[in-house]
Amino acid sequence: MERPEGNTTLKVFEDTEIMDQLQDPRLMQMLLKGANNVLDVMLDYKQLMFAASAAMKIVKTKLEILDTEFKMTHNRDPIHSIQTRLKSQASILEKMAKRGIEPTTENMERYVSDLAGVRVICGYVDDIYTIEHLLAEQDDLEILERKDYIVSPKKSGYRSLHLILQVPVFLPGGIRKTKVEVQLRTIGMDFWAALEHEIRYKKNLDNEMLLKRLESCAEVIARTDQEMQSIRTEMEAHENQQKDMELILEKLRRFDVPLP
Ligand code: 0O2
Fold first, then answer.
1. Model-level pTM?
2. Whether the predicted pLDDT of 12 surpasses 60
3. Pocket around ligand 1 at a 6 A CB cut-off
4. Cα 97 to middle of ligand 1, angstroms
5. Helix locations, the chain, DSSP H
């Protein structure tokens, strides 16, 4: 059969010298051992990412349930939308290289807390802390780390609440405790972060003027978030006052019913 030219794999097998060497049982054993080791590492990585993916889905489902339950009792959704992502191999290796961590699967599990990421977009700032509180109440979740970039924004202007959760993933071999990074932010904070990520983040932009303008956009958005929050709080107070008034009027009407 004709073999395509330039196919190096096939050429190797045509090379009688190499084929002769492969007949050497010691060399063959070394090659098989090497291949076995590589496959073990690949399988460990696959299992790690499988657990990360499962943990991410568990957290997303929990958030959806909390949102629905909140809507049933308070008649509004605290969560506007939820996004999930598994960190890419390139991004994992880049992060580890930057920190000088040896790229092993054990190190990935130990040092890279955002293999699984869940982003929760809320309408109002207080919704973010409500969701955090509801997550903290879940017995099977543990909050390992908390960074509040809303109270203390990053120098760039970045605002969000970051939580590293530990989630038990039930697998045939036992429970695998798996980390998930949850980023909670308002629609406004997300708008800023998405555009800033495109324009500047990881690009080492050093134009002071543009950096200042990006930061001031973040401040304008933060003030708008505060104002929207305050409008909603006032509206709710007004609605509650009206409800209280209705209740009193209803009682008065009942009181006014003429006696027989
Ligand atoms: P990507 O591409 O979004 O995944 P850690 O994640 O804890 O290992 P670090 O830097 O201490 O490392 O975490 P930090 O500061 O809490 O931020 C992690 C994530 O927050 C980033 O993930 C971004 O998603 C987001 N983030 C942090 N700072 C900024 C910022 O200035 N602008 C924008 N747009 N996003 C930011 P990654 O893995 O760096 O990137």
1. 0.84
2. no
3. 113-114, 147, 154, 156, 158, 162, 193, 196-197, 201
4. 16
5. 8-14, 16-22, 25-74, 89-98, 105-111, 125-136, 187-199, 208-255
